[in-house]
Design brief:
21% strand, binds octanoyl-coenzyme A, Peroxisomal Thiolase, Chain A, domain 1, 13 strands, 9-stranded mixed β-sheet, two-stranded antiparallel ribbon, alpha+beta, 372 residues, globular
């Protein structure tokens, strides 16, 4: 018989700075007015297209986002900067990814009731590598005094669930008994705040999870099934890379940042994920009404609601069934689904829930769990 493996505890970190829709729109619109004024002659001659204002009403209707927590509100809203201020990283201090991951990891270890000495590995999954090497996971392992091995992995918005899946596989194979998974998502340095279709979407945050054979925490869920799929798409891309320094063809930094065809993502990913989850439930002989919580990737509130309504066959359901921390935190890239799990961890013993990420790749990972 396959051994039982649990999500034994989780912890989250998010910055204190918070930006409302009105604040982000006010900053963006000031940038637009300034741009249009500076380019007035070219705009009048029809040589440059004027920029259009953003709006709080559009953001709330299109995404469900009301606020986002960020590492540096002041510089993001300053129209002469439009990005957070961060330091170059080097050996003189812990990397930002390590600092926030350690904060979240301490809470996860506390919930899981495990000490660093009981952990056999650290897996860090994130959408953006902080550097090429050494792995930030090894830095975290060293700082927390964890033995065994550690490594970083990148799977866009599915980095968290894919990392949990790796942890499960390593435990199931006997390589480890307890693994710390950390998912720092410091996205705002990579957001182009001068783009109307993107400026409102992302926040910063980090989640950590302890995956273990050990089950002596009141927060734990047994992992029942995992299912993964990837399908190549150019609809969510970032071409930033170490090759940039040597590239022959000219591109601006802005061209290398995150960009997406959000509408196509919406239209293609919703049916893909709904069918994927429905077939997973069928394969496991689980009725849709047995799933008491859908902790889904927080890219867009409409997307979460559409996917759940396709799975359960009605759009008449309570947000309690599919929580939406996106309202407060914005899109936290891969950390979103486990943020939802951490903040809405209220199933009764024996009840089932489903964690599912989806995003760049495309990549999807769905994990069915049962409250112990
Ligand atoms: N204010 C006013 N109007 C606007 C704005 C704005 N801010 N932005 C766009 N509009 C306009 C458009 O120009 C368009 O006008 P028109 O009809 O005249 O062309 C109209 O509003 C409608 O635009 P859209 O069709 O684009 O609007 P949608 O209803 O599709 O909403 C969303 C846009 C919110 C982006 C939506 O498409 C969405 O959420 N899609 C899903 C995207 C998604 O899931 N992406 C995954 C990204 S996360 C991920 O995979 C990890 C990546 C790593 C993180 C990167 C961090 C930097």
């Amino acid at each position: 018989m396959m051994e039982e493996i649990y999500i034994a505890g989780t912890g989250i970190w998010y910055p204190q700075d918070k930006i409302s829709n009105d604040e982000i729109v006010c900053s963006y619109n000031a940038y637009v007015d300034n741009y249009n004024q500076l380019n007035e002659n070219e705009i009048n001659k029809g040589e440059v297209a004027p920029l259009e204002h953003s709006s709080t009403a559009f953001i709330e209707k299109a995404s469900g986002i009301k606020t986002r927590h960020v590492i540096d509100k002041k510089n993001i809203l300053d129209i002469n900067k439009m990005m957070p201020a961060v330091d170059h990283e080097d050996e003189s201090k812990l990397s930002i990814h390590a600092v926030v991951a350690i904060e979240a990891a301490k809470k996860a270890m506390h919930q899981a009731n495990v000490k660093p000495s009981e952990i056999d590995a650290v897996i860090l999954g994130t959408s953006h590598a902080a550097r090429n090497y050494p792995s930030v996971a090894i830095e975290i392992q060293n700082e927390l005094g964890i033995n065994g091995y550690a490594y970083d992995m990148l799977v866009g918005c599915s980095s968290t669930t894919f990392a949990i899946n790796n942890a499960y596989s390593d435990i199931a194979s006997g390589l480890a008994e307890t693994i710390l998974v950390v998912n720092p998502e410091i996205s705002t340095p990579f957001v182009n705040y001068a783009r109307r279709d993107i400026h409102f979407i992302f926040g910063d945050g980090c989640v950590a999870s302890v995956i273990s054979k050990k089950n002596d925490s009141k927060h734990s869920h047994k992992i029942i099934d995992r299912k993964l799929i990837t399908k190549f798409s150019n609809n969510i891309r970032s071409d930033w890379s170490y090759l940039v320094r040597a590239a022959n063809n000219e591109k601006s930094y802005d061209d290398l940042l995150f960009y997406q065809n959000g509408n196509s993502v919406f239209k293609e990913v919703c049916p893909l994920v709904a069918e994927f989850i429905s077939s997973q439930l069928k394969d496991n002989n689980i009725q849709t009404n047995e799933i008491k919580k859908f902790w889904l990737h927080q890219a867009n509130a409409r997307m979460v609601n559409l996917i759940v309504s396709k799975i359960i066959g009605t759009d008449n359901f309570d947000t309690n069934l599919a929580p939406l921390p996106i309202e407060k935190f914005g899109n936290l890239a891969s950390a979103g689904s486990m943020f939802a799990y951490n903040l809405h961890n209220d199933l009764e013993k024996g009840e089932k829930g489903l964690i599912c990420s989806f995003g760049a790749g495309y990549s999807v990972c769905s994990i069915i769990v049962e409250k112990t």
